[in-house]
Amino acid sequence: MSSREKHRAAESEAGLFDLDYLYGLKKDVIDWCMEMNLIAKAYVCPTCGVKRVLTERDASDGCTWVCRKFAVNAQHVRGTVRKGSWFGESKLSIPENLILTYLWTAAFTLCRKIIFLQ
Asked: Which end of the chain is more exposed for a tag (fewer CB within 10 A), N or C?
């Protein structure tokens, strides 16, 4: 069983929601992150200098940047949508990162209110 499957099983056992479900389609999450400037809206291929195309794929985030011009061994050059963003080094999905960030900031705000009231 992969770590992702173990994580989903633990979520289910704990009665937590499937985090992907909370945000709908992965492409919608990517579009929202682009609107909020959390990830790049465009990506230029470092090899050929042409803009890469955002393509839906069966990847962890649902989309990748693909260079249609430069190819090695008949394969398109691909890159993650996370590159250069604060999601880049995380092993969590983008929706999981967003939920955890929201919960952390909400808890921080609540703690500040409690401290202020004392």
From this structure: C
